[in-house]
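REVIEWER CHECKLIST
Item 1: Sequence provided? yes
Item 2: Single chain? yes
Item 3: Sequence as submitted:
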Amino acid sequence: MSSDDQKSWKRRIEVRMHLMICHRCSKYAKQLEHIASGFKQFFTLKAKDPDSSEIKKIEQEVLRKVKRER
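Item 4: Structure as written out by the authors:
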């Protein structure tokens, strides 16, 4: 394992440990996951059907999840 790989691995462990104990950062990370998931759904759907009514539903669901995590 290279030095950079070891640093990267250690950093990921540090971040995960921090998220286990820091309530605010954990909530923020969950919000980012919801947003990323919504973007993925949005762009997948947009590519298939740009005029889909499902787009508004995805937007509302992401906003609901993010607000719930506050």
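Item 5: Key structural point noted by reviewer: The first helix runs from residue 3 to 21.
Item 6: Recommendation: ____
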